[in-house]
Design goal:
This protein has 296 residues and is an alpha+beta fold. It has three domains: 81 residues, no CATH class; 98 residues; 55 residues, no CATH class. Helix content is 42%, strand content 17%. The protein contains nine helices and seven strands, in the order H-H-E-E-E-E-H-H-H-H-H-H-E-E-E-H. Strands 1-2-3-4 form a four-stranded antiparallel β-sheet, covered by helices on one side. Helix 2 packs parallel to helix 5. The longest helix has 21 residues.
Amino acid sequence: MRALGQAGVEAWAGAGVTHEAWTLLEAGAAVVLEVQPGRIWGQVPELGVEARFVAGGGMAGMLSSTSGRAHARACALVALAWLRGEGLAAPPEALHRVSLAGNTGAPKPPRVVVESTQAILRELVAVGLSHLSEATAERLFTASVSAQAAKLVRLGKAVLAIHEDVARLLDRHAQADEGRLFVRLAKAYALAEALRRAGDEAPEHLVGRARARYLEVPRLHLVGLGARRLATESGLEGVAACLYDLAQGRWLSVADVRPEGTPASTPRSGIARERCGRGRASPPWPAPSSGSSTPR
């Protein structure tokens, strides 16, 4: 990651996605990082996404819990957060900063967020879906961030989906669809109107609830009882380990995968010991021959 630097992240993700990642970081989105030899794992609880960087695979070898543009944004977010923490990256001076807390140090009231979101959606329809611009995409992304900060989970997700559709149309992507965009606009506006009418007493089925939840757990006493090689039809490979929790008397399992053929992706580089819990045991497969990165 040090070798890639900020320029490498921006070259891979593109200017638009990098701008979105910096906007989230400057807005105060918390990125929880866990650094281990050879990899960086990060999660953004507010957005319910996580991504992992594996040494030797570059940005293209990163894995995340999302796909498409959201995948690139999550990867760039984690990479830039780590680089900034190391003093190797800084946001561009021209970045349009959005504060999740507003000028008063508290999140914007939901009513204000809902009304401003409705204004953006009305303007988008009035201008016409054939006259989209990068400024439009940026405003939509900012609105989704503001909705997430105001704990309006459903509205934030709906506006973010509209932002993704606008980005596809601007990029002339094969999956771009003006009809789908219009349907999402209508649904998001109806949701915003329902939230506006409900006021401060909006029910949970309108507000929504973040699905990603993280719980503190005590120290685990695990015994590794074996592992097997794992491969998926989508092109991922790795190892799945079987563990036994001595304290709770329960069986657990964990998998570690990455894209097939990723440089330096051999599971012998610590995964077996880490996942199986047998620090003094040999890996469940022999070391690969010289020049090979595929586990046997």
